[in-house]
Amino acid sequence: MHGADTVAPHTCSLLPGPHLTHRSRATLGDWHRTMAQTPNVLWIVMDSQRPHNIGAYGDQRGVPPTLDRLADEGVVFERNTSASPWCLPSHASMMTGLYASTHGADGRYERLSEEYPTIGEELTELGYATVGISNNAYMGQASALHRGFMDWNYVLPSLGADDHDKGGAKVTRQMLEWLQAHRTETRPFFMFANINDTHTSYVALEPFRSQWAPHVSDDRAQEINRQGFFVDPGRPDEMPEELQRDLYALYDGETAYVDHLTGKIVSYLRDSGELDNTMIVVTSDHGDVIEEHPPYWNHQLTVFEAVTHVPLIIRYPSVFNSGTRISDLTQTHDVVATIYDLLGATSQLSAVEESSHSLLRTIENDARAYVMCEFAFPLNMLERAVRHGNEFDLRPYFRALRSYRRDDWKYIWASDGRDSLFNLANDPTEQTDLINEHREKARELYDQLDAVLARIPVNDYGDWMITEYTRKRHDTAGISSNAGDTYDADKPIDQRCVASAKLDLHLEANDGSV
């Protein structure tokens, strides 16, 4: 972010030592001479993890004790936003530091273009030992997000097992085995891990089911999770209290389980003496709507805060003072620029400078001014919803969305003209659309969003025919896909919201005028 795209300084300064963000950029040769002083990086994605049941974000029940301790020993970014409301584009942003508009890996083109190096690729070139481990079917060879990593392993879920583990235990075991095998290496490591057990469906492994959802039977959990994107067709405008209770309880159990697995990795690093020399990042690719916007639940199809607001906790005592909280706006893929900044390196992609804002700059009173979340046309998602047999008209959900937040105002652009505006300070769950009451603010944010999209590269790779490899991986993980389906639009889809009449049409349709 440059010029108008940074905000006025706040008063918090976290760096106990020299300011690393102003170091000269390292050349590859300089880098190899300083490897012994460089940190390891452990980046854990708790898939679909909302912040609502984490102590650092206000919940005091102790659901995730590992995260709570990491937060106490590190820094919590309170207003962090994902780049997309679902797995593939969000992870592609984390792998590249780019917005989805640029990297193009989304619901229409389910693969990262070869023109974009991953952070694994770039850190490998800088001398890191790099590894990725995931039990999310969208992570890895199927989507090309594995590219450039020295090691990558996709872990199959425990199909047919009675313990409800979706593969998280295997991911954790492989993480520990890799760390032990590379313990004597002189090179630092970069480990990226996705633990998918917090992702729908919510089932919860014992003993966490008994601890957090003792009243929910297996039959009840299966009944809930069969509902797909929508629940209770007979009551479309409300979520039954019993269903809310059960969803939250099962979700707590899943969070507690993944936190338990994360704790195993943190304990190993602590016992091996590597903890303080490892920058630990814990975040999520997106959240989930649970009861905020009935009849919808799950993620995708929306860019409401329940899906876009995700935790971001970093522990690295050499840079981040313990117990620090940052209220500035941040994005999950800002971690990419932060790693480069910390190392004094520069990404090969100039677009990263506009899309990913170093968190070291944020804590040095140079925060980003806005956050953006993007959702492309949901071709595959709606096909799966139809296969689930939902008794809803899905046509209103066939649209692209972008949310643009600045301060407490959040504007949502919709390709079908049904734009909306919310004030998150007064309405954190986005229940009251203010676009007619605050037309000037809507126009202001619309113009700012359009200006952002004019500055960053915007790519449309068309419609991707799902590969046989991808289809098999998705089918194994319970993700339905059809290798022969493509979508032929009558017109090219405009990736930018450049049609200035869009907002006017929305306001006129609501009996308003600009």
Task: Please summarize what this structure is.
The protein is of the alpha/beta class.
Q: How do the strands and helices of this protein lay out in sequence?
A:
Elements: H1 28-33, E1 40-46, H2 65-73, E2 75-81, H3 87-96, H4 100-103, H5 119-125, E3 129-134, E4 151-154, H6 168-181, E5 189-195, H7 208-212, H8 218-225, H9 241-272, E6 278-283, H10 305-308, E7 312-315, E8 324-331, H11 334-343, H12 352-355, H13 359-363, E9 371-375, H14 379-388, E10 401-406, E11 409-414, E12 420-423, H15 439-455, H16 468-476, H17 501-509
Parallel strand pairs: 1-5, 1-6, 2-8, 3-4, 3-5
Antiparallel strand pairs: 2-7, 6-7, 9-10, 10-11, 11-12
Descriptive key words:
single chain, 2 domains, 514 residues, Alkaline Phosphatase, subunit A, alpha/beta, Arylsulfatase, C-terminal domain, 4-stranded antiparallel beta sheet, 8-stranded mixed beta sheet
Overall structural class, as computed from helix and strand content, comes to alpha/beta
Count of individual domains? 2
Stated plainly, the CATH topology of the largest domain is called: Alkaline Phosphatase, subunit A
Instruction: Supply Rg.
Output: 22 Å
Q: What order do the SSEs take from the amino end to the carboxyl end, as H and E?
A: HEHEHHHEEHEHHHEHEEHHHEHEEEHHH
Number of helices: 17
CATH architecture designation of the largest domain: 3-Layer(aba) Sandwich
User: What is the molecular shape?
Assistant: globular
Distance between the termini: 29 Å
Mean of all residue-level pLDDT scores? 79
Describe the main β-sheet briefly: 8 strands, mixed
Name of the level-1 CATH class of the largest domain: Alpha Beta
Helix content: 25-40%
